[in-house]
Specification:
Structural class: mainly beta
Protein name: C1q domain-containing protein
CATH architecture of the domain at 113-117 and 124-253: Sandwich
Strand content: 25-35%
Distance between the termini: 170 Å
Region (Disordered): 29-59, 76-123
Radius of gyration: 60 Å
Domain C1q: 119-256
Keywords: Complement pathway, Disulfide bond, Extracellular matrix, Glycoprotein, Hydroxylation, Immunity, Innate immunity, Repeat, Secreted, Signal
Largest sheet: 5 strands, antiparallel
CATH class of the domain at 113-117 and 124-253: Mainly Beta
Main location: secreted
Number of strands: 12
Strand order of the largest sheet: 4-3-12-7-10
Shape: elongated
CATH topology of the domain at 113-117 and 124-253: Jelly Rolls
Length: 256
């Protein structure tokens, strides 16, 4: 019973507190707003996600052209790098296939039978001069320095050879002027042996001449060549001026 009266007393006190009037002076003032706290730190990077599945279209995989269109723009070209060292030379490759036929050349002009000059054009003639203080080298072709006539350029000063272009009958002759003995051959691919000419009079001024008529075909050659006859060693070593004139001309053509 005592417990019952104690509970009743507590309830009565509570009712008194809730139903009682409080004057204005019992209300507290509003509190001041708190300051903002410091920003929190960034979180740690998350783990890399799994690779996604390839994109698909309604009727199958994405077309390569579509993927290419989705790519970004190409970047600008970078600077050229330093050239690297030269590589080793490779092995020689095999022979290639033969090339095709070239286009036809322009139509040629007829110059007579056998590709040679016609008789009307065959006016072959030459005359050349050699002036030198040394003796013509023994056993060698005599060369010349100047040209008097060389109508068809059949004579070559550098080689000393006349090369026939117009087949026919020719006359060749030479004249040598010196203060010592001189020996010269007339040689031709149309001859089986050399034709030799010498002068041993040993006069103050000696003139040596020689000549021959030859039938030549196209391509055959004629030239002069010095040889050792009965000259003294002092004559071959002589350093006085010597002159040789070599001439030739077509008597009549003989087309092949």
């Amino acid at each position: 019973m005592g417990g019952y009266y104690g509970m009743a007393a507590l309830v009565g006190v509570a009712l008194l507190l809730t139903t009682g009037q409080c004057d204005v002076g019992c209300r507290g003032t509003d509190g001041r707003a708190g300051e903002s706290g410091a920003s929190g730190r960034d979180g740690y990077a998350g783990a890399k996600g799994d690779k996604g599945e390839p994109a698909v279209m309604d009727d199958g995989p994405v077309d390569d052209g579509v993927l290419l269109a989705l790519k970004g723009e190409a970047g600008s070209r970078g600077p050229q790098a330093v050239m690297g060292p030269k590589g080793f030379r490779g092995h020689l490759g095999g022979a290639g296939d033969p090339g095709g036929l070239g286009s036809p050349g322009p139509e040629g002009k007829s110059i007579g039978q056998g590709g040679q000059l016609s008789p009307q054009q065959g006016r072959s003639a030459f005359s050349v001069i050699r002036t030198d203080n040394s003796y013509p080298p023994v056993g060698q072709v005599v060369t010349f320095q100047s040209t008097v006539v060389n109508t068809l350029l059949d004579f070559d000063l550098t080689t000393g050879h006349f090369v026939c272009r117009v087949p026919g009958v020719y006359y060749f002759t030479f004249h040598s002027v010196a203060k010592v003995s001189v020996c010269l051959y007339i040689i031709s691919t149309a001859l089986t042996e050399e034709l030799g000419f010498c002068d041993y009079n040993r006069n103050t001024d000696q003139v040596l001449s020689g000549g021959v008529v030859l039938t030549l075909t196209a391509g055959q050659k004629v030239w002069l060549q010095s040889f050792k006859g009965e000259q003294k060693v002092s004559e071959i070593r002589d350093s006085q001026e010597k002159r040789i004139i070599f001439s030739g001309f077509l008597l009549f053509s003989n087309p092949e």
